[in-house]
């Protein structure tokens, strides 16, 4: 059967369907300018003959590669250790599962230039781009927008004037939720370990946190800039507890950072939540494996990625770039806070 299918041509499909080769070609490519009757006839012929379009030939005709790039400007250690990034990549794959398209993961270590990434993207290797975990010094927004490929960011872009399509969680609201929860629990000597402040998510979370504290008339004890990793979270958690032993509530930039703070608290002899309340961010599976389990703010990476991928697919189908999608976060209360 495989040999028969490999020998079946588009001309065979057209003959069995009773249409011209041009009509059969348009039908196989998606049905543009093909009547419903002809489209159904071609569909039946394809099924009967087991016709499989040649991908290389199809790409020459359609100028599409059936490949989407997920661009993550992080090194491999961050990409493969961060559960939010893993969720997001899984969301892109899920969104492509019922399409002919596949994804290619493009990573770039921090501090590297875009001189390898951009030529690859310009070279016609991908049909569209989803960007995840971008930083200010990446300069990706302007450079990727100039490629004129279907594009969507997961996370608010730093250059709003470019009007790049994106999906995001309302991180300002998320930071506010963390502060309000710790205050409601009775914590008053509060500190935060942020993410990298060259990333919009980290900036927005700090903004919401600070606004809520100011409205409550509470001044934070300390603030440290982290990098969204467990190791740095533990280092800064230990420093925080040594320099400010009076602290009774911590907002960590993500669940990895929060898990690091938990390790530091245990080493310092602090009891969570009896003497130290802790709130993380992202609500990943990691928070269910810690002891105690993490109170955390939702940041649905898989859903955000599905929506961003859908934006790219819609642009590929000829639709205009969509407006931003902003998801409202919620606080999931567990034992740490």
Automatic annotation (TrEMBL):
Name this protein carries in UniProt: LacI family transcriptional regulator
Span of domain HTH lacI-type: 8-62
Annotated coiled-coil segments of the chain: none
Pfam families reported in the protein's UniProt record: LacI, Peripla_BP_3
Keywords associated with the record: DNA-binding, Transcription, Transcription regulation
The organism of origin for this protein: Propioniciclava sinopodophylli
GO molecular function: DNA-binding transcription factor activity; transcription cis-regulatory region binding
Gene3D superfamilies, alphabetized: 3.40.50.2300, lambda repressor-like DNA-binding domains (1.10.260.40)
CDD domains according to UniProt: HTH_LacI, PBP1_LacI_sugar_binding-like
Family annotation (InterPro entries): HTH_LacI, LacI/GalR-like_sensor, Lambda_DNA-bd_dom_sf, Peripla_BP_I
């Amino acid at each position: 059967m495989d040999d028969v299918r490999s020998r079946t041509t588009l001309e065979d499909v057209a003959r069995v369907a009773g249409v011209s080769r041009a009509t059969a070609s348009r039908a196989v490519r998606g049905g543009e300018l093909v009547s419903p009757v002809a489209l159904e006839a071609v569909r039946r012929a394809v099924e009967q003959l087991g016709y499989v379009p040649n991908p290389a030939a199809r790409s020459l005709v359609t100028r599409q590669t059936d490949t989407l790039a997920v661009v993550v400007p992080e090194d491999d250690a961050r990409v493969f250790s961060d559960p939010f990034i893993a969720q997001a990549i899984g969301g892109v794959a899920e969104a492509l599962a019922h399409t002919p398209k596949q994804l290619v993961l493009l990573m770039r270590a921090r501090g590297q230039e875009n001189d390898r990434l951009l030529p690859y993207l310009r070279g016609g290797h991908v049909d569209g781009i989803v960007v995840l975990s971008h930083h200010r010094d990446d300069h990706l927004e302007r450079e990727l927008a100039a490629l004129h490929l279907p594009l969507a960011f997961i996370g608010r872009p730093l250059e709003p004037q470019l009007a790049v399509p994106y999906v995001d969680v309302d991180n300002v609201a998320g930071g506010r939720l963390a502060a309000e929860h710790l205050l409601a629990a009775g914590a008053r000597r509060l500190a935060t370990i942020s993410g990298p402040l060259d990333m919009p998510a980290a900036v927005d979370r700090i903004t919401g946190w600070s606004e809520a504290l100011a409205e409550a008339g509470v001044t934070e004890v300390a603030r440290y800039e982290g990098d969204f990793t467990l190791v740095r979270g533990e280092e800064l958690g230990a420093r925080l507890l040594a320099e400010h032993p009076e602290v009774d509530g911590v907002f960590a930039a993500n669940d990895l950072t929060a898990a690091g703070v938990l390790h530091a608290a245990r080493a310092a002899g602090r009891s969570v939540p009896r003497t130290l309340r802790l709130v993380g961010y992202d609500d990943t599976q990691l928070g269910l494996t810690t002891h105690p389990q993490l109170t955390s703010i939702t940041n649905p990476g898989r859903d955000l990625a599905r929506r961003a991928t859908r934006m790219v697919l819609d642009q590929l189908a000829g639709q205009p770039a969509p407006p931003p999608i902003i998801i409202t976060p919620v606080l999931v209360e567990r034992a740490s806070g």
